Amino acid sequence: MIRLGRAFEPSSKDDVHLLKIGVEQFKVSPIDLSKAFKNHQWARENIMVGVAAGQNDGIGQLQEGGLTALREELQRMSHLIFSGRPGDRDYWCGKGVDSEKEIREKYKSLKPCLHGSDAHDLDSVGRPDYDRFCWLRGDLKFETLRQICFEPERRVFIGNEVSEDGFPSHTIEKVKVDNASWLENPEIKINSGLVAIIGARGSGKTALVEMIAAGSGSVDQSHTKRSFLERAKDLLEDTTSTVTWGNTETTNFPVNISLLPLESEEPRVRYLSQQFVDLLCSSDGLADELVNAIENVIFDAHSVDERLGARTFDELRSTKTESIKRSIDKYQKLLQDIGDNISVQDDLARNVEDLRKKQANELAAIERMKVDRKKLIPSDNKKLLEKLDQVREATEAKSQTIATIEKKDLKLQGLKEEADQFKDGTARPYLEDLKTNYEEAKLTDKQWENFNLTYKGDVGALLQKELLETSKELVKLKGPGIGEALEAEDKVKAKPYLKSYKDLSSNTYTLLLKEQHRLEALIGVDSSRRKKYTELSNKITKAETALKLRNKEVLNAEAAPTKIKELLTQRKDAYELLIGQIEKEETLLSKLYSPLQERLNSQEGTLSKLTFSVNRIVDIEQWAESGERLIDRSRVGLFKGIGTLKGIIKDALENVWKNGSSQEIAKAMSEFRTKYGQAFWNHAFEDAKKTRETKKHWYGQISTWLYGIDHVKVSYGLKYEGVDVQQLSPGTRGIVLLLLYLSIDIDDDRPLIIDQPEENLDPKSIFEELVEKFKEAKKRRQIIIVTHNANLVVNTDADQVIVASRGRHKKGALPDIGYKSGGLENPEIRKAVCDILEGGKQAFEERSKRLRINI
């Protein structure tokens, strides 16, 4: 350099000055520099190239058009950019004018921006302008500079204070295991990013994550099957695990499985044990567990404001669908009542001729009894006989009137009791139920009183008045009236009790009865005949009362066809309303599950092939089989043979049930009943046809079955390329599950612990699907994985690698287990990755090739 300086300035004799001149004039071409690196291994291993991005120095001086190629060549061969400007950092991380892809195409790789001390006086040392301190994530080793080239954005931070990935209260800082003499280092610090635990099989990898999960209160008895805690339970009786969190909080729990809860109430970490993942991914795995896992993701995707105070997805779904469930119960009860009424009307319509015959027979029997009664009275006094007939008929009419009024009185008494019961036993409890079910409505007691069920008017006073009037009327009808004569002992000599026979109905019952007895005595009816006469009269009275009911029954039977039409219309409408509730539930659940679909729509790769939909699940087979059990399939007819009815139902109703609207389903069911109603009766069992009651019971069963909806439920479906997730292969199920936790489950910022996720996955899926997702997820939550896969350590740029090792097995004791940790920038850790994990060296090489970083 001095010789170069002297050649440039031969007049100078100062070697120091000449050295400065020589350095300033020395120029080397990027091509020569690149060749030098290629030819010198030591240079490649110990030298990194950095260029300054300032406007007045470094490549900032190469702004002329003719120097563009030189400037870009220097930038291409550089590993680092010296700049503290946020704009430069964004640009070289692919967040500026050029995208990541464009940066890599132009300059081979993304570049980390570093900001060092450029102080020109002692007062400025350690006090950079704008507090642009330079923070590097990694060990205090030169190798850390290599590592930041792979993650230029995440592993370098320029600013006053570096922020952690997650919240301090959701970040594990360290774990300490007490009463565990077999642990060589019982206290282990945990990085806040992605932590990979590696080691040979049986070296204690799972033991560490289970201790961490246990100390976080996130292990329960469901996690212990085939686990380390289960296998070593006799050696862990007094062992405890303490986790220290980023906010200095500590949690301490025993690891003795007998002291663990059946289910963790508030787990501080999301722990996917190896057994849990294996079961979820197995071909005969726990479908419900997978569904629950997905539902947890959906629940966490809803903001706190949208959860309506619910603690779980089930609670949220129950709250959202509560009114629908009540409406379904209401319409099912209405359909049951309509069905019962139709059964009664069907019975009347079927038996109208039989009822008419009974009506005629009963009328004829009454006439015969009246003839027989006349024969009991001597007929020599025609006028007396006529009077007796008049009085007797008036007495019987009065008796029936009294019976009607007494029945009215009885009904009024019952109605009064019903009203009192409604007020005290129904309305008040109903209001209390409303208050409980809708407590979150936050209404005052005064406001709630507006919902109190009550009658429009003062029914108590109304009924009391009616009862009083009825009582007065009964006294007036029965007698004895005021001034009414007593019945004489000698009825033959007794004077007439009635002043006139013109309006016999105006007399009291007791007065008419006295007159009837007097006339019977005058005619000469002896005591024996009088007894028979009385008995026959009583029979006639009862028969006439029964005939009145029969007449009413016949009228109802004759009107039954019209009534049935009305009821069928009501049933169709009610059924349509019932199915409408199912449609409402579908719409509501679609909205409830929408966060999952929205996130699926924004994804790429496997997740983009997932589709979500709310489905109406119809078990048409089970429903048809229930119907077949109600009929005699051995009879000749449309439904003869096992499965015949099932086939008819599937052809006529399956498609509309699964895909139709409420109106279409109600119409189809009405048409089905019209078309096959008689066929059902033709196939009724003999026992069902024995009596009117058995017939009604059978019709009721058919109606309840036909208009029930137990075979219909609303659920959601998650499909991968058209195949239900629960039917996927273990490998694909595993990918889906892990992607859900890594990509979709973005609202859960608790630490995620996964024990050997790759066990059910193929290497291609791990590299193509999981690596980038792990890198994205570690930016927002702490992740701890146990793995044998090099890609999950190297290509995810794990922030910390913990290497587990164990000593010899000891009889009746656990082997000594130790843990060594460090970053990928640590040569010892890199060597362990290459030695322990299959394809470790290749993973490092592939990473360099993929990122175009020749280090």
From TrEMBL:
Gene3D superfamilies named in the record: P-loop containing nucleotide triphosphate hydrolases
Superkingdom of the organism of origin: Bacteria
Residue span, ATPase AAA-type core domain: 722-793
Name of the protein in question: AAA domain-containing protein, putative AbiEii toxin, Type IV TA system
Biological process per Gene Ontology, one example term: double-strand break repair
Pfam families: AAA_21, AAA_23
Lineage: Bacteria, Pseudomonadati, Bacteroidota, Flavobacteriia, Flavobacteriales
Domain Rad50/SbcC-type AAA as annotated: residue spans: 174-421
A GO MF term: ATP binding
